[in-house]
Amino acid sequence: MEIGALEIEGYSLGGVETVVHLPRLRLAIDVGRGPDSLVRADHIALTHTHMDHTGGLPYLLALRQLYGMSPPTIYVPDQMGDKLEDMLAAWSRLQRFDSHYTLARVHPGGSYPLNRDLELRPFRTHHVIPSVGYCLVKTTQKLRSELQGLAGPELVALKAKGVVITEARERTLLAVTGDTLVEVLDKEPHVLAAEALICECTFLDERKPYAKARAGGHIHLDDLMERTAAFRNETLILSHFSQIYSREETARLLEPFAQRVAVASVYAFPTLPQQAWIGPLAGT
Ligand SMILES: [Zn+2]
Ligand SMILES: [Zn+2]
Q: Nearest ligand, CA of residue 180?
């Protein structure tokens, strides 16, 4: 699916498997059970180390080695870095060959470059184990606003005098919350202005009592209904639905939210590989 400037693939079913893949950037944010398509991901950013988000990691590392590919960089919340290395070391002992990877232990507020103009910026999320979300930020050099309208030769002359004629502009192309309580939207309001936001919304109606949704560290649709005015994204993708909802129910239950929120396009992320996205939902 083309979302703004990005190609985004993947699927998410709460507790079962979550994969967000940006194939053109060779970036995966969570790897689920390690689908073949992710073998090309040179950058693997983990929101947290629950099995449904991280389980396929050792398999992907082994596949990359089988195919003679370069070691990927794995980004993981700092508190879980040692434990992730222990797990990968255990697989090395089981297989009697070393896993090759670079580990980046990430901190909320830090910046991790993917290439010359793109970086990952983790932000703190609120789950039942250490967790982060990720912003994907693109920086471009643009002509300084006060110089707009000057002719080319004038700009060349200014530059020759040593005047800096450009300034850095940042665009947050995408924010991905991973699993979290809704507090992330109040404490990290910048994610509500990302061009596209993939936001977890595990529970959609009273079949999951609100208190139990919170106890599991998850967002309930009631949380988002209270915040419809806050979203300033161009595209909002809701994700990580519980297995208790069918595809038809998901579309129906999200409808009132999609009608209230002032976002151009609201989608529901697929829950299975190859499944079509739900949306854009009505009211958009
Ligand atoms: Zn999950
Ligand atoms: Zn989780």
A: 2
